Amino acid sequence: MLTRRSLLAVTGGAALAALSSRGAGALAPPVIRLSILQFGSAAWELAAMSALGRVGAGGFALELRRAANNDAGRLAFLAGAVDGVVSDLLWAARLKVEGRDLVYLPFSCGEGAVVVPAGSRLRRLEDLAGARLGVAGGPLDKSWLLLQAHARKAAGIDLAQAAKVAFGAPPLLAAKLEQGELDAALLYWTFAARVEAKGFTRLIAMDDVVAGFGIAPPPALVGYVFEGAFARRQSETLAAFAKAAASTRAALAGSGAEAEAGWAAARPVMQAPDDATFAALRRGFIAGIPQRPPEAERAAAARLLELLAAEGGATLLGPLRTLPEGLYWAGARGL
Q1: Any idea which fold 4-109+220-334 has?
Q2: What superkingdom does the record give (predicted)?
Q3: Distances (CA, A) of 168 to 133, 172, 191
Q4: Of 288, 293, 304, which Cα lies nearest the Cα of 332?
Q5: Which of 11-25, 98-112, 315-329 is predicted with the least confidence, judged by mean pLDDT?
Q6: Are 31 and 60 in contact (CB under 8 A)?
Q7: What is the spatial distance between Cα 221 and Cα 304, in angstroms, rounded to a whole number?
Q8: Could you give the residue ranges of the DSSP H alpha helices within the chain?
């Protein structure tokens, strides 16, 4: 059941998600102001975190600002309107190299896939030659760059030239795929899961692409990004949040009453119109939970950054060539 507390965890604005059971005279817990995508998977985690009692009782409160898109969330963070934002590792690393004081806490290893209709003639990577291929994002999307590198290495083809490529927003490409206007589409994992629930299948998962370069599983390229000053000033608060996040993911990955309560709280913000879609999104979220120790996670990310630097160069990464020191939050070592 979605309680008032779990509802507040996803409503954003000035809502505090940590109205705990403390008495009226008790000191309010420290507040973490976060910008999250309105229906992004972090919103699922935070709704479950609140419903399972990890907020408030965990020693912190949450003030969530819901953003319509990534750019809006990043602008709020850069303007100081929030303490942290759910964003991309490469974006955070580039800002760090350019002198911004911030830290990164991994959230999800979830990657996308090339999806095709059931019964498609496309069965191997080589079959994409001549196919109408939709690609989420633009020419410098990291998944597209990695897929091209993998196609050259594994199949000897230049996908950018061999396929009929159309770039676009994931919802549009998913719709075009369903309508038969595309033969295949490279989609982010949540959109891939949604069309898979309708009977579409994976031609190749980005997990397998990354594994082809000796990195398995992929590192978490999405995480919580915090201002460095906040992380130092509120180190205990951030540690409590990180512990609550890890505990919530463990609960959601498990079984039994706690897992079901967490997913029941998350479902209203998952935009899952049916049980098949909900089940596909649930599986995808669990598959994307980071499992590596912090140092191994950083090493995997550094290796992936090398590959992306070779593919996208300065146009993609600006001055970024290696992961900057101090990017990963040091407190994660104790989790």
Answers
A1: D-Maltodextrin-Binding Protein; domain 2 (3.40.190)
A2: Bacteria
A3: 11, 7, 13
A4: 293
A5: 11-25
A6: yes
A7: 10
A8: 4-11, 41-51, 70-78, 89-97, 142-155, 159-162, 170-178, 189-196, 206-211, 228-233, 235-253, 257-266, 275-287, 294-317
Find, among 196, 220, 255, the residue nearest to 90 by Cα: 220
Q: Could you write out the three-class secondary structure of 114-143?
A: EEECCCCCCCCHHHHCCCEEEEECCCCCHH
- DSSP state letter for 16: B
Q: How far is CA 255 from CA 62, 250, 263, in A?
A: 26, 10, 11
Quote the pLDDT of residue 114: 98
Are the C-beta atoms of residues 182 and 132 closer than 8 Å to each other?
yes
Give the other-Cβ count within 10 Å of 165's Cβ.
18
Q: Look up the pTM and report it.
A: 0.89
Structure tokens at 170: 């994931």
Tokens coding 90: 């490469």
CA-based torsion, 50, 191, 68, 137: positive or negative? positive
Structure tokens of 79?
């303007």
How far apart are the C-alpha atoms of 178 and 186, rounded to whole Å? 13
Q: What is the DSSP letter of 40?
A: S
Identify the pLDDT of residue 38: 87
What does the pLDDT read at residue 14?
37
CATH architecture of 113-211: 3-Layer(aba) Sandwich (3.40)
Q: How many Å apart are CA 119 and CA 199, to the nearest integer?
A: 10
Instruction: Work out the number of other CB atoms within 10 angstroms of the CB of residue 163.
Output: 22
Q: Cα–Cα distance between 23 and 236 in angstroms, integer? A: 22
The pLDDT of 138-151, averaged and rounded, is: 94
**CA separation for the pair 308, 321 (Å, rounded):** 9
pLDDT tens digits along 16-52: 343 333 344 457 899 999 999 988 999 999 999 999 9
